[in-house]
Write a structure and sequence with these properties.
Length: about 700
């Protein structure tokens, strides 16, 4: 599958490469420019606001910070966000959650790329390594820390990560970058920006490869790397009458390795394909009124095929029927078929039939096995369209409202027993009212309805007091929901053997005895959150800070691990978080920038997994310095006292030299060194590295 994308990428690159123009300098200016010195953000309410007027806490990771960090993925960048927990299920399955809870599945955080949700509708996850996006194309990342269903709908339960890519107008010219390093890191990135009439376009393509973790807890090799190829094409058309049309298309194909499983499964690697298209039109009705229409379609395909060699009795129909009646008895029967007894006549009859299968297949000595193939495939598609109206009828009042509709569809014989679809619609509104010179009221709500979970309303109200022009105190109360995804609500999870030899019950197709079925009656999770905050910007010192005190209660929480042999999701769990967070960003001199974050999170949870997946103390610190002769250095520290009972502490060092070559040509050579300060696995006992350090080298050319 991966071979199919390479010729297309090459053709697009050659076509675009014939019209190169001058590019912007490395570290171009920030996305927003305005007369106010207070930094502005967009993510909180969809209104452009100074950070002192936002109804919540927002962390901004700008281009300078992203480059200096040396991070090669969005999850690693999110370690710079206070309260964010970054865990690894294995080398290519990254899980990010705000404040914690079920970190093995990123269920409770909305992730957007240029307004497009990359949250999978079918299996409740964000596949970070499969997003068709290069770090080099990111302009900034805004993270709203707290519930924000009122603005972005269900799944924005605890936080929103909004990735904003560079405007094609600001990325003209050609860039190429190569990164190599230990642990099998091999990355290539290339982009070309050009103009055509009233349009600016940028084509980006690349490939990435890494080996993942080195070894399992027992010291054996760990099969958990990844490799992929991707491309994106972005365009901005300046139309008449202050209208703009933006569109994007992109694709990614690759392979994510999986460790060898039990029951004779081998090489069950996942072939991953992601495709998307997005279009957005903006137009000014008047100087105080703007309309926006956005629509996108995306598809995510996952294919996992492997060879099997399984004891024939595990496909016995009698055992499958027994599992539907009494899963505990069936599992115990597999371990010792002649040491259990049925409690009803039907169980006894099925148990007797299975015991005969065990005897007939010589399982008292070496059990007869059947070989064949097994498939686990999913195809998830989302179509979304939204109308947004931004209106400022008075100088002291702004309103953004909208309507949206979405169609989700997931096809998986393995996980859903076929096809499941869900239609939903939403209506939202956020108002900002300056009712006194120093007082600002933000209020909003989102009403949503979908076929699987019914209707929900999520409100938020916030009061900001700007006691001086560049500082404010705020009080916020909000509610939010997360709707159960298709897998939690509609799972029919089973594995089927195909082309089995020898035949089982006269057929080459047979079903594994365990089948997991969802209850189908789950309700949405709810959160009630309160916060007090202080946001300040001292323009004289170019110092910004934000401190937040929070209290959050999650109700009807679905926390149970979703396992084939124990599939019992329920709304029986709850969690409570309270604590404090802070961030500080200081441009100490024209050549020095310092950054600090810290989070204290006290978590009480009814489920033990939720309790151990929250770090009580976590934070980061960074120093970026520009030396003479275009030398640049940065050092970052990341730490958490525990994540799944393992502490984490790491320092990242970066040394870069920039060269001015011929006219408008620049070259940057960068050396990156990561050093773990602890000697612990990362999140799970299986995730180990033989060395605590890693070296990376990159070369980037602009022309």
């Amino acid at each position: 599958m991966r071979q199919g994308l390479r010729p297309l990428c090459a053709a697009l690159w050659l076509c675009a490469g014939s019209s190169a123009v001058t590019s912007l300098p490395i570290g171009a200016e920030d996305l927003f420019t305005n007369s106010s010195e207070v930094p502005e953000v967009l993510t909180a309410t969809r209104l452009r606001q100074p950070s002192t007027e936002v109804p919540g806490s927002v962390t901004v990771l700008d281009r300078e910070l992203i480059r200096a960090s040396g991070a090669r993925s969005i999850p690693e960048l999110l370690r710079l966000v206070p309260g964010m927990k970054v865990g690894y299920r294995n080398g290519n399955q990254v899980n990010v959650n705000y404040h914690g809870t079920s970190i093995t599945e990123a269920r409770r955080m909305q992730v957007l790329v240029d307004g497009r949700s990359v949250y999978r509708p079918g299996l409740a996850s964000v596949d970070w390594v499969d997003i068709p996006l290069a770090i080099e194309d990111i302009e900034r990342i805004e993270v709203f820390r707290g519930p924000n269903t009122v603005t972005y709908g269900a799944n924005a339960l605890q936080a929103v990560v909004n990735v904003i890519t560079r405007n094609p107008q600001d990325s003209l010219g050609t860039r190429s970058k190569v990164t190599v390093g230990e642990r099998g890191v091999r990355e290539f990135y290339g982009s070309h920006g050009f103009t055509a009439g009233n349009a600016s376009l940028r084509l980006s393509l690349g490939s990435r490869q890494f080996d993942g973790f080195d070894e399992l807890a027992d010291g054996s090799n760990y099969h958990n790397g990844s490799h992929a190829e991707y491309f994106t094409l972005s365009a901005l058309h300046n139309l008449v009458g202050e209208q703009t049309l933006e569109w994007q298309v992109g694709a990614k194909q690759g392979e994510n390795e999986r460790p060898t499983e039990d029951f004779g499964l081998s090489d069950p690697d996942v072939e991953a394909e992601d495709y998307f298209g997005l279009m957005r039109w903006k137009g000014a009705v008047s100087t105080s009124h703007e309309l926006q229409v956005q629509g996108y379609i995306q598809q995510q395909n996952r294919s996992q095929d492997w060879h099997t060699r399984v004891p024939i009795p595990l496909f016995d129909p009698s055992l499958g029927k027994l599992y539907q009646l009494n899963p505990q008895l069936a599992n115990a029967t597999v371990k010792n078929p002649f040491a259990v007894v049925g409690t009803t006549p039907e169980e006894t009859a099925l148990l007797t039939a299975f015991q005969m299968t065990v005897v007939n297949n010589n399982c008292m000595t070496s059990c007869n096995e059947s070989t064949g193939t097994t498939q686990a495939r999913t195809h998830e598609r989302r179509t979304d369209i939204e109308l947004q109206d931004t209106w400022r009828p008075f100088d002291n009042f702004s309103l953004v409202s909208g309507l949206g509709a979405r169609h989700d569809r997931a096809d998986s014989q393995t996980f859903l027993g076929g096809t499941v679809s869900n239609d939903s619609w939403r209506a939202f509104s956020n108002a900002e009212w300056r009712f006194a010179p120093n007082w600002l009221l933000n209020a909003g709500g989102m009403f949503e309805h979908d076929e699987l979970s019914g209707s929900n309303f999520s409100p938020r109200i916030a009061l900001n007091w700007l006691f001086v022009p560049e500082q404010s105190l705020r009080a916020v109360y909000s509610e939010a929901v997360r709707r159960p995804d298709m897998f939690e609500q509609n799972a029919v999870w089973s594995y089927q053997g195909r082309n089995m030899s020898p035949l089982i019950s006269g057929s080459s197709t047979a079903s594994y005895y365990q089948v997991a079925r969802a209850p189908g009656d789950l309700e949405p999770e709810h959160i009630h959150a309160s916060e007090l905050g202080w946001n300040a910007y001292w323009s004289t010192w170019q110092l910004s800070s934000d401190i937040r005190l929070f209290y959050e209660e999650l109700h009807k929480q679905i926390s149970e691990p979703l396992r084939l042999d124990n599939f019992n999701p329920s709304n029986a769990n709850q969690s409570r978080f309270h604590g404090a967070e802070g961030q500080l960003d200081w441009q100490a001199s024209p050549r020095d920038r310092l950054r600090l974050t810290y989070a204290y999170v006290d978590n009480t949870a009814s489920d033990k997994i939720d309790r151990r997946l929250t770090a009580r103390h976590s934070g980061s610190a960074g120093w970026m310095h520009e030396w003479n002769h275009d030398w640049h250095t940065s050092v970052f520290y990341y730490g958490a006292d525990q994540l799944n009972e393992y502490p984490f502490a790491r320092t990242d060092w970066r040394l870069a030299k920039r060269f001015q070559l011929a006219h408008e040509q620049r070259l940057e050579i960068a050396l990156m060194w990561q050093l773990r300060l602890d000697d612990e696995p990362l999140t799970w006992a299986e995730n180990n590295q033989r060395s605590r350090s890693q070296w990376l080298l990159s070369a980037e050319l602009d022309f």
